[in-house]
Amino acid sequence: ADPRPCNAMASYPTLPPSMRGLKRFMTVATQLEGRFPVVAYFCRFHAVQVAVKEHASGPDRNVIISMLDAAEAEKKKLTQFEELHDDEKGKTAVWTLAMSYFAKADKLDRASQFPQAAKLFQIVVVLFDVLHLFSEEFDEPTQNCCKYAKFKTVYINKCLQEGTQPVPGPVDAEGNPIEDPDTAGAAPPPAAAAAAPPPAAGYGGGYGGGGGGGGGGCCCCCCWYCMACCSRR
């Protein structure tokens, strides 16, 4: 039977269990499509690219074909947006929204509004993953922002699930607050250091990398995430 369409701008198929890892991109796209239709499209297109790479030779081929058709149909509805025709502008649109949401998430976190902060940090992580459509590698500040967003998402959700009170702002692996030795606790989040998006490399230039921010282990720089990471050694 043909896959059932989900409620999106275009008729994307319902993802099978084997593709459940892509659901987060489709969910964020649905959340963004009202105000940020181009970024929503890029979220779905990234999911399509990953599906093609990881599932094209498996039993989900018909689902992938439906996803490709839906992506093409959605793109045709958005042809008036320059971001779809210029990699640099497309990358900037995704990056700018990611950094805006990062700042909002950090502000909510420091105000102890943890459920809302975790949701926004999670969107930030998805958007950094989507940036792999344009860039194979991120600069160090951008990597740090992504790692910090991932760390805070996991940390806050774990605390909420366990019924414990999260600590706002930067924390180490044990949940203890971290102060910047140079500013005595008044340091900005890692986003302050990421002043420009990474250079665009064209669609598909790294989408299979999985995690936004490129991933290999701790970079051992003086960012909040790495301070927490190194404390586990």
Summed up, what is this model?
Helices cover 50% and strands 0% of the residues. It has helices at residues 23-32, 37-55, 61-77, 87-110, 114-130, 140-162, 224-230.
Strand and helix map with partners:
Elements: H1 23-32, H2 37-55, H3 61-77, H4 87-110, H5 114-130, H6 140-162, H7 224-230
Helix pairs in contact: 1-2, 2-3, 2-5, 4-5, 5-6
Task: Write structural notes for this entry.
The protein is mainly α. Helices cover 50% and strands 0% of the residues. It is built from 7 helices and no strands. Helix 2 (37-55) crosses helix 5. It is globular. Residues 1-8, 181-188 and 203-233 have low confidence and may be disordered.
Q: Helix count, per DSSP? A: 7
Q: Tell me, what's the shape?
A: globular
Summarize the main sheet: none
Please mark out the parts with pLDDT under 50 across 5 or more consecutive residues, or reply none: 1-8, 181-188, 203-233
**Helix-strand makeup class:** mainly alpha
Give Rg in angstroms. 18 Å
Main attributes of the structure:
single chain, 233 residues, mainly alpha, 7 helices, 0% strand, globular, disordered N terminus, disordered C terminus
